[in-house]
Structures are given as structure tokens and as C-alpha cells.
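The instructor's notes for this session suggest beginning with a concrete chain rather than abstract definitions. Hand out the sequence below and ask the class to guess, before any prediction is shown, which regions might be ordered.
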Amino acid sequence: MKIKFLTHEGINFLKESISENIDKYSGKNSDWIDESYFGEYDKVFPDFELDMSTQKSSETDFNNVKIIYSNLKELRDSQASDERVWAGLCHKQFWRYMQHRWSLEKAKEEDGGKEKFIEKNYFFGPDHPKFLNALARLWWIGRITYDETNKQDPFELTRYLCLNDLNGRGSALFAVQFSSNHRLVRIFLKTLMELEKKTKLSREEFNAVKEIMVLWGGKIVLDTLDDEELSLKIKNYVTSTILKERKQ
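After discussion, reveal the predicted structure:
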């Protein structure tokens, strides 16, 4: 498969004409978009399809993270941060998936209606674009959770995040600076995964641990701590603060 990306001209045209093309975003194909708005990478990637096996589309997110990251793993971070790549894939190869997972029927007026829904899912919106775009979010979740040191199951942390409030926890995780440090993310998620085998954390409690990590990062260089030291620090915080507050 060769990636069809949208040119800057194509993105600008499509964004500016969302209101005129709303009905077309419910169509069976994207043939209405002029081919001149697409470019093509020289590199060939494996052909693949995304999982659309259930109407409860969120249940397929974990499979689709594995599928899209495994097949597009050779994308550089700079390429995966480029709106043209994901907007192109949303409007071309994975148009059918977009209709399945992000049907316009899911658009809510209180969230800006159909225009905002299209802008957020098909393009890069202004806030946390990599997590909000329908396809970029899958790749980047794979990028920050894939653990090459786990030879038996490198997607173990991916499964943990996807099956435990992905939208609430994932968006919050992308918003913090340490999310760009894959070792710190791995330790953070692995420690919470082990803790949650005994005690489930709420979204608010998960975010509290995330925030304390940010606070620690402002006082010390977290990268100077080895894996065991940082993991123990997280465990102690959960035990001494989060679980203690539950009892009050």
C-alpha cells in the first residue's frame, strides 16, 4: 500500500468547504474529492484493513491500534505528526472505516455539531490533534504504549490503556510533557496496570497520578531514576495518597 496524503492545498480546500460537503461525509466513497489534491509517498507499506467487526466500534480500538501501528511502524515521528498523512488516509484508503467508526450520526450539537465533528476526526483540530484525529490517535497510542522490551506481548500496555477508559485516560496522557518519553510512559502504565489488578482506579485517580508525575518532573529529572525507583515512587503515592483518601 502506498500512503495517499492530502496536499496543503487539498486540506485548505476541504476545511474551508466542510459546510458545503457535510452530506458527502456520509457517502459510500470519497470520489467527489479531486485526485489532484492527493500526493503519494514512494515508500510501500503492507496492505491492511482495519477491524469493523462490531457495531460497538470502541471495542475494536485495541485491535485497530495493533493493526495500524504494526503496519505503519516505519513512519517517522515527524511524518506521523503531519496532518497531511492522516487527513489523506481518512479521506482515501480508510474512508469506509471512518463511516463505520465515526459516523456523522455521532456528532452532537453541544460539541459543535457535524462541522466540528468532521474537522476534529478527519483533520487536526486545535487541541491535542494527534489524539483527536480518528486514525492518528490509533497510531500514536501504539507509539507510546508499544513495549519492545516485552518479548511475549509488546502490546500488553496498549491493551491495558485501550480497555480501561481509553478516551478519558488517553487524552489526558497525551496532554502531558512526559508522554513524549516512551520509557517514562511505559513505567507509568506498567505500574498502574499491576496496581489495578488488585484495586481499580477511577479516571480522576488515574489523572491524579499523572499530575503528580508532572509535578515530580518539575522538581527532579525523572529520567535520572531507574525503572524500579520510579515505579516504587508511583506505588507509594497511590498507596499513601489515593487509597488513603478513599477511606476518609
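Then share the key points. The first strand starts at residue 2 and ends at 6. The chain has two domains: 2-146, 176-248.
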